[in-house]
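Ligand-bound model needed. guanosine-5'-diphosphate.
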Amino acid sequence: MQILYSKNPYVRYIRRKPLSVIAPISVLLVLYFFFFSSSSSSSSSSSGSKYNYSKKSRGWFAKNRDSVVLKNLPKNHISHYDLNILSTSSDALAKKEEILILTPMSKFLPQYWENLSKLTYDHSLISLGFIVPRNEDGDIALKNLEAAVKKTQSLDNKSKFKKVTILRQDSSSLDSQLEKDRHALKVQKERRSMMALARNSLVFTTISPTTSWVLWLDADIIETPATLLQDLTLHNKPVLSCNVYQRYVDESSGSNSIRPYDFNNWVESEEGLKIAAGLQEDEIIVEGYAEMATYRPLMAHFYDANGDKNTEMALDGVGGGSVLVKADVHRDGAMFPSFPFYHLIETEGFAKMAKRLGYEVFGLPNYLVYHYNE
Ligand SMILES: Nc1nc2c(ncn2[C@@H]2O[C@H](COP(=O)(O)OP(=O)(O)O)[C@@H](O)[C@H]2O)c(=O)[nH]1
Ligand SMILES: [Mg+2]
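Prediction:
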C-alpha cells in the first residue's frame, strides 16, 4: 500500500508541499464561518423573545439553495410578520391593535348587527368571523347574515369592517333551539360539546398573524356599550368576561326591568370541587342547574348598579356571551374542549385551559351587556 501511494504523483506532491492543500482549504473554512456566524448573530438578537425568526438558510451554500426556491415565484409572495411586536395593550385603539370578533350564529338578529355596526372602535381594525350550523335555522341565519354583510361592506370606509369570514359548520348541531330545549340539563353535554367544536373551528380558521385580540360575541347579545372594545381592552387582561343580563317587563309592576342571564361566569367553590372529585372521568358539571348545586359564587349576582363599571373580579369559569381574549392565549393552545376537561367543557373548559396555561381570567360584574329575550 505504501508503495502504491507514493507512486501516485499527486500524493507525492502533497507530501512534499502539504501547505499547497492546507492553505486554500483553510481560506475556504474561514470564509464559510465568517458568513455562517454573521447570519446567526443577526437572528440571535431576538433569542430572548417569545417567537424567533432566524432564517433557515445558513451561510453561503444554504443561501444559494434558498434562491433556487424563490425563483419563478411572483414578487412579494412572502409576507413577514413579527409576533414579538404585535401588541396587546390597554391603549389598543391608539396602537392600532386588530380585533377579531367571533360569533357562532344559529339565528340572525338585526339588533345584533345594529349593535355591532355601532361599535366606535376603528372598523378597519376589526375583522368578523361567523360559523353557521348546517341546518334549517342555519340556512335562514346565513341568508340574513350575508345580506347584512353585503350592505355594510358596500358602505363608506368608516362603516366597513376589515374582513368578514363566514364558515358553515361541518360538525353536527342540534335542531331544536327553543330556550327550554337547549337549556335542559340532559342535552347540555351534547349541545355544549357541539358548540365547542364550532368555536374551535371558527377561531383556528380565522385568527391571523395580525390579530391582537379576539372578542367572543354571541349572536343573541343585542346590546353593548358602543365603546365595548375600548372599554374591555383598557383592562389589558388575557381573558375578560362581561356580565350578561336580559331586559324584561316585570309582570307585576308592568315596568321595564333587568335580570341576570348567563351563569357560566363563576368562581370555583369547595362544593364544586367536591362534586368534581366524585365524578366519573367523562362526567361534567354544568353551572346554573339546581340538580347540581355547586354553590359557586356567580358573577351574575355580583352586579351593583351603583358600582364602578371597571370593577374586576377573578373568575374560574366563563360563558361565551361577550368575552375578550388576547389572541396569544388562543395561539398558546387554549381552546374550547368538546370533551370533559377537569369535568368542564366549552367556554368553562376554555377558562380552565387558559388558567392551566398560566393566564388569569377575569370578569366585570358591573359591566352589563344584554341578551335577547325570546
Ligand atoms: N354554529 C352554531 N352556532 C350555534 C348553534 N347553536 C347555537 N349557536 C349560537 O351559539 C351562541 C350561543 O348559543 P345559545 O343557544 O344562545 O346559548 P345560550 O344563550 O347559552 O342559550 C349563539 O350565538 C347562537 O346563535 C349551533 O348549533 N351551531
Ligand atoms: Mg344565547
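Residues 218, 220, 371 surround magnesium ion (ligand 2) (CB under 6 Å).
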